[in-house]
Amino acid sequence: MTSITTPANFTELGLIPPLLARLTELEYLQPTPIQAQAIPSILAGGDLIAGANTGSGKTAAFALPILQHLHTQKPLSSKSSKGNYVTGLILVPTRELAKQVADSIKSYAVHFNGEVKTTAVFGGVSANTQMLALRGGTDILVATPGRLLDLISSNAIKLDRVKTLVLDEADRMLSLGFTEELSALLALLPKKKQILLFSATFPEEVQALTQELLNDPVEIQLQSADASTLVQRVFTVNKGQKTALLASLIKQHQWRQALIFVNAKNSCNHLAEKLSKRGISAQVFHGDKGQAARTRVLDAFKAGEIEVLIATDIAARGLDIEKLPVVINFDLPRSPADYMHRIGRSGRAGEVGLALSLIDVDDYHHFKVIEKKNKIWLEREQVAGFEVAEVISGASSAADKPMAKPEGSAKKKHKNKVQINAHIWRRNS
Ligand code: AMP
Fold this sequence. Notes:
binds adenosine monophosphate; Rossmann fold; alpha/beta; about 35% helix; disordered N terminus
């Protein structure tokens, strides 16, 4: 693992003036830790593995050096080569992320006067428009694996001239079942290339992929870059009272934007209806919505026109919603890794954010698993007016008791009553 002190500015990282000028305009005053560590290594040309959450500034960490390579290795491929070439390939797990990463890259390249062509391709929309966009090739291609394979089979693009491959959110890509698509794509790449792999977590399949693919990579592991700016809290609530508690919190705090996670598409609509009956208007975001509707809702949410958005985990990855003040787990995510991805939507790039989980007795055990896997421990709190019944039923064994600290905890012995340890979160807090 590298340990480099964070340079005070981007100039020290060796970036060229057109990029530096743009970063100043964007008010990126200082590199984030991942940028400080990744940019010099990528510029030096080696492979890289980086453990970084979304919100850490990882897009710029890989995009800036790729753009710099393209700019300095003139003449650009687009002018020197014919055909449907691509030089920098970025594979991402979701449509939204593809669009978002491509938009960021285009924004970073504004002072290149159009000499770097960036294209995004993803499923859910017509392939024809994307084929047209790929005519004559593209310098940078941001793609979801399935659509990219379709476009390759239609001869719309070839991967034999790729110089840099980025696997963004590799863990998500594999957990979404893109393993076969990924292998098919990797087989089409030239032997000599730079590979940059970004992943929030490193389950076995990601480790296997890195061992198979990467050549003597620099490894960067950040200690949860945004941990200090994100406050995580857990509220216990009686079964059947989650909606009432949620509505009360929303009304009381009047959050500018709140992203609420549930586990199923129909739960999104169901919860929206229940909130509506309580006078709160909410929009939903899930995989059954068409791409156009998803983009519309997301844009409105980003613009602050929608205050409450209820989403499935499809929104947990990669979506870059600036300064989201609060993320709420109405349903707990099934996997501990998804918990980190969900809460990563808040407290981004140095902004203070709040990640709330509402747990009833059925969630206690699962929340402990989430904590254990993510090496966190949060104090169970209660909200005044929504105190849980004195003894939590369902906590059948000592290990399951809701207030139990992890084994080996130095904290004093817990009691089997939630109220004794829990904070009461006052309505005016
Ligand atoms: P990412 O992790 O790439 O999704 O980036 C998260 C957010 O941080 C995006 O809104 C970026 O525009 C912003 N960002 C990235 N790098 C910096 C920086 N060095 N200074 C300020 N904001 C940044």
